[in-house]
Specification:
Layout lengths: L10 H47 L8 H25 L4 H8 L1 H8 L5 H17 L9 H27 L2 H12 L4 H7 L7 H26 L4 H8 L2 H13 L5 H20 L11
Subcellular location: Membrane
Protein name: DMT family transporter
Organism: Hymenobacter armeniacus
Length: about 290
């Protein structure tokens, strides 16, 4: 999305504002769950985001080549599946834990093929974090919610790989705008089947538009702006702060309190993610999560 250099933020504040925006959007989403459910909320977010991005970016769909379509379609499908699964998780577990578990996907990608002993440390830290969250006693954190969050992390991994391929053949703003069109495909059938989309009122439509702006349009714009000047490694380290931001946002905006063990899990996985980013030769940029 074009951003006037006159109003452009410096790269680091842009990334931090993007993180705050995403977590604020997640809080709005959780407020919509009682009325629209996870499927309806995800459909509203992605559908309205697609409309807004298409109106602003105005990609020339008729001029895309076959190679560009082959790249952007699976990229968009992965984006839609990732967001839908994340909302399914968010309906069952606190925001901070959902984001922490989702981060396991990009972390695993960063550690893939690692051969140095220090990489084992990051893997052990991440495993310890998951172990601290896991409901070993059969109570506490929702097991299905954890599964949805980890599945969203898996889709995030696929999204990163496909996003890198798409960025090589299509400019970032166009890739996001066109990809968002196809992100609707894996989500909308569930939204329609749930019947929740029939409950839309002008008030809910306004909340859905705010959700689209805070969760997709604004953060994608800020991240693309930051990546023009910010090294990928620095960007990835900053994005590692998302689980902490999510936990704080869940506490302040949703009244969700984590136990000491769950806070330790967040810290362990953030440390593993930042450490893996620092010591991996070419870390993937975790753009557009949640």
């Amino acid at each position: 999305m074009p951003t006037s250099s006159r109003f452009a933020l410096p790269a680091v504040p842009a990334v931090l504002l993007s993180i705050v925006s995403v977590q604020g959007g997640a809080a709005i989403a959780k407020g919509l769950f009682p009325v629209l459910g996870a499927a309806g909320t995800a459909s509203a977010r992605i559908g309205l985001s697609a409309l807004i991005l298409l109106a602003v970016v105005r990609p020339r769909l008729g001029r895309l080549s076959g190679a560009q379509w082959r790249a952007v379609v699976p990229y968009g499908l992965a984006l839609g599946a990732m967001n839908f699964l994340f909302y399914c998780a968010l309906a069952r577990v606190p925001l901070g834990l959902a984001v922490t578990l989702e981060f396991v996907g990009p972390l695993g990608l960063a550690l893939a093929g690692a051969r140095r002993w220090v990489d084992v440390v990051w893997a052990v830290l991440a495993a310890a974090g998951i172990a601290l969250i896991a409901p070993w006693s059969g109570s506490g954190v929702d097991l299905l919610g954890m599964g949805f969050a980890l599945a969203a992390g898996g889709c995030w991994t696929i999204y990163i790989v496909l996003g890198q391929r798409t960025a090589a053949v299509l400019p970032g703003a166009q890739a996001v705008a066109v990809g968002m069109l196809f992100a609707v495909v894996p989500v909308l059938p569930f939204g329609v089947a749930s019947g929740s989309l029939l409950a839309f009122t002008p008030h809910l439509l306004l909340l859905g538009a705010l959700l689209a702006v805070f969760s997709s349009v604004l953060p994608f714009t800020l991240e693309m702006q930051a990546l023009r000047t910010l090294p990928t490694r620095t960007f990835s380290i900053l994005m590692s702060l998302e689980p902490v931001a999510a936990a704080i946002s869940g506490w302040l905006l949703l009244g969700e309190r984590l136990t000491l063990g769950q806070w330790l899990a967040v810290v362990f996985i953030v440390a593993a993610s930042a450490g893996a980013t620092l010591t991996t030769a070419s870390p993937p940029a975790a753009v557009g999560g949640e």
